[in-house]
Amino acid sequence: MGFATSNQTAVRYVEESNFAETPASPVFKELRYTGESLNHNIETITSEEIRADRMTSDLIQVGAMNDGEVNLEMSYGSYDDLIEGAMAARWATTINVSGATDISVDSTSSIASGGTSLAGVPVGAWVKISGFTNAANNGYFQVTASTASSLDFVQTTLVVEPAGDSIDITGSSIKNGVTPISYTFQKYLQDATTPTWIQYLGCRVGSWDLSFDTAAILTGSFGIMGTSSTASSSAIAGQTIDPATPTTTEVMNAVNNVADIVIDGVPSTYYFSSLSLNVNNNLRAQQAIGSLPAINIALSRLSITGSIMFYFENKDQYDKYVNGSRLSLSFRVEDSAGNAYQITIPQIEFSSGSITAGGLDTDVFMEADWEAVLDPTTSCMIQVDRFPAA
Q1: For residue 258, what is the DSSP state?
Q2: Would you report the helix, strand and coil content of the chain in percent, each value rounded to 5?
Q3: Are the C-beta atoms of residues 44 and 60 closer than 8 Å to each other?
Q4: Is the pLDDT score of 243 beyond 80?
Q5: How crowded is residue 219: how many other Cβ atoms within 10 Å of its Cβ?
Q6: CA distances from 78 to 12, 199, 372 (A)
């Protein structure tokens, strides 16, 4: 006799080519996770028939749906596919220049090329530059203007430098979009008396949460909603596991892995106690007569919210709350190997704010909730840029 244990339960997923259909001979990817609540929920209605013996005549199934969460500790490259699902879009390489010797620093906020193409970098994207002799010219920079021969940046800290060094410029980004992506999730209970594979079909990513707290690991979750489910005592015919998963990149934390918090294009001088992000697609199940599970899981209005808490030093951010002013928020997480994500919310407004002296021998914080709105310059509400270690 063997009872299934969480320590030997694998959670896997594969993207579906057709909604709610697991691909033939699927190549599943194994997830790193800290907990999960994936479940197939059956909606029932109790019969209202009146019986002389006071008995209940039936319990009728009237709906079915997959839902739940996968909880995580953030690590580079481990969740890029599910970030696509949360963003309803695909990662795109914005630039990939390697070993160019004709790139110079043209001004304190721009670089220029003598022939190497710099085309294709959208306004608002971040790029990573390395190779310049002057250290101030290497690092992460946000683009404000882009041509085939030049890039202008928000940052104004560059030092004019002639071409000649071997320069690398990389960038890959994703913005919120309208492309629905679905997955089949699989839960493998391998140490039960009868090993069991449970499939959850037609799953879309409804939410993506990240939480930054002092002296803590960077944690988060993906919320899932789907349609039907099957269970079997054998694997899907022809299924294999992607050998590159799970990843082996290190778990990130909110202490030395948070490199910069940028407000309105300038690295913030505030000291933060906590920061959170919630991306919510507000999924809705579309039901139809003749089908127990939903026939589709639809994207609704995108909502991006969060909270922020920092030690109070001056009234600048409180003024923005009171005046209803908009600001941009961006933060980068980078592991010790040099793998990094830059998460940018180009336009936010504070929806609440408070500054309180809570009690004796306590620090005063500004605590605020915020909500993202459309940024007309970048045509998005959230953007994520990723940079693998060199």
Answers
A1: E
A2: 5, 50, 45
A3: yes
A4: yes
A5: 19
A6: 12, 21, 26
Q: Give Rg (Cα) of the chain.
A: 25
Q: Tens of pLDDT along 259-280?
A: 889 999 889 988 899 999 999 9
Which two structure tokens, joined as six digits, stand for 127? 């790029």
Q: Report yes or no on whether pTM surpasses 0.90.
A: yes
CA distance 175 to 71: 23
Q: What per-residue confidence (pLDDT) applies to 192?
A: 94
Q: What percent of the chain has pLDDT over 70?
A: 100
User: Are 52 and 24 within 8 A, CB to CB?
Assistant: no
**Residues 343, 330: contact at Cβ < 8 Å?**
yes
Are the C-beta atoms of 108 and 154 separated by less than 8 Å? no
From the centroid of its chain, how far is CA 344? Answer: 11
Coil/strand/helix, residue 8: helix
Rounded to whole angstroms, how far apart are CA atoms 14 and 187?
A: 12
- Token pair recorded at residue 323: 């005046």
Helices and strands (H and E) in the chain: how many:
2, 27
Domain 93-175 in CATH 2.40.30? The answer is yes
Q: Residue 1: what pLDDT?
A: 63
Q: Domains of the chain: which residue ranges?
A: 6-45+57-89+177-387, 93-175
Residues forming a β-bridge with 224: 68, 205
> What's residue 2's pLDDT?
77
